Amino acid sequence: MIDLTLIGIGTGDPAQLTLAAIRAMNAADLILLPRKGAEKSDLIAVRRQICADVLTGATRVVAFDLPVRRAQGDYLEAVQDWHDAIAHGWTAQIAAHLPEGGRLALLVWGDPSLYDSSLRIADRLRAQGMDLRVTVIPGISSLQALTAAHAIPLNALADPVVITTGRQIRDHGWPAQADSVAVMLDGGGAFQAIDPAGVHIWWGAYLGMAQQALISGPLAQAGASIVAQRAALRARHGWIMDVYLMRRETK
């Protein structure tokens, strides 16, 4: 039996870690840390620092190389193949470090339930016949970090919010029946595909980290600044994670 705990660790600030997360980390026999290449070394460095700060017992910490998703071909097929490869990597690490079973933890950026595929990858391990029990420890999501950084509510009074992706905004435009739209996993500037009239945007990158950057304002004016700032930050750091909220003025 493998007891797998998926622990939300927030968006880069070690102070976002919950007491439940700290307890779960110290209860684990093994914590696996994914390496995403030299250009994203900041991400594993944050995880290593969290482990150094909170682990007090014999929990082992092991890094492993995360497979790279191919950029060509059908997007969904590429993601499915990528998840298969990650599941294979998890299985190999479990066989190497927990051959008799035990308690495994993975530190998930943000929250495991919001645009993260750790739970889907865990399902693959079950489908392969692994005796697996999964527990989720929620964490501060990028949307919570964004609204906190800008000191704004996620929704307008009594109005709905749609959480979607940059791909959906580029392909389909503003979601129907939504006054507020939160956009994640945007490769860059999907908001340029919509009419900016009457739309306000709140954008944030590297939320919770030392290099955090924020821009807000009417989309017609702020959009170009976000595109330029995003490109400059990506060039400087070699990677970027950002998220934004847009809201239409309602009468």
UniProtKB/TrEMBL annotation:
The pathway that the record names for this protein is: Cofactor biosynthesis; adenosylcobalamin biosynthesis
* Keyword flag Methyltransferase: yes
Species assigned in the record: Sphingobium cyanobacteriorum
Recorded hits in Pfam families, A to Z, give: TP_methylase (PF00590)
Q: What's its EC?
A: 2.1.1.152
What is catalysed by this protein? precorrin-5 + S-adenosyl-L-methionine + H2O = precorrin-6A + acetate + S-adenosyl-L-homocysteine + 2 H(+)
- Sequence ranges assigned to domain Tetrapyrrole methylase in this UniProt record: 4-222
Asked if the record carries the keyword Methyltransferase, the reply is yes
CDD domains named in the record: Precorrin-6A-synthase
- Enzyme class of the recorded protein, top EC level: transferase
Q: What is this protein called?
A: Precorrin-6A synthase [deacetylating]
GO-annotated molecular function: precorrin-6A synthase (deacetylating) activity
NCBIfam families for this protein: CobF
UniProt GO BP: methylation
**InterPro entries listed in its UniProt record:** 4pyrrol_Mease, 4pyrrol_Methylase_sf, 4pyrrole_Mease_sub1, 4pyrrole_Mease_sub2, CobF
Q: Domain of life of the organism in this record?
A: Bacteria
Question: Keywords for this entry?
Answer: Cobalamin biosynthesis, Methyltransferase, S-adenosyl-L-methionine, Transferase
